[in-house]
Specification:
By secondary structure, this protein is mainly α. It has seven helices and no strands. α2 packs parallel to α4 and α3 crosses α4.
Amino acid sequence: MIMKGSSLKGSGLIVIFLLTLFLLQPVLVDAQFDKEGLESLITRTNKRRDTAEKVAVFKGIMANHYYISASVVDEILKDLPPGEALAAVSISSLSKKDAQEIAKMKKAGEDWPQIAEKNGITLKDVIRDIRKFQRTSG
């Protein structure tokens, strides 16, 4: 026996809701995984650059790798720790935006997903770029 339309409408809405939830879950999980992955890279970078000498070497390597002046990297490192400076320069390189502007966004309290999105890139792109930097710079 077929029921009146009202219960079918409710069933249809439930099915649509469940499908939407099912389809969005991987996107939400990936976004959280990417954010945690980037934070892990940032933390690891900070731990490896724990002395002024190591930061100075890092600054030179980063400037050469990303083709920006050491003075720009120096300015960014005044406001951000090495790992976050690397993320800012990576986003700058990928988006073709000014590195100091990216660093200012972070210093103003925006998080990396917001900054990446505002600059038209994904955290996956940033993670991939930082890993490439790490492989080539040691």
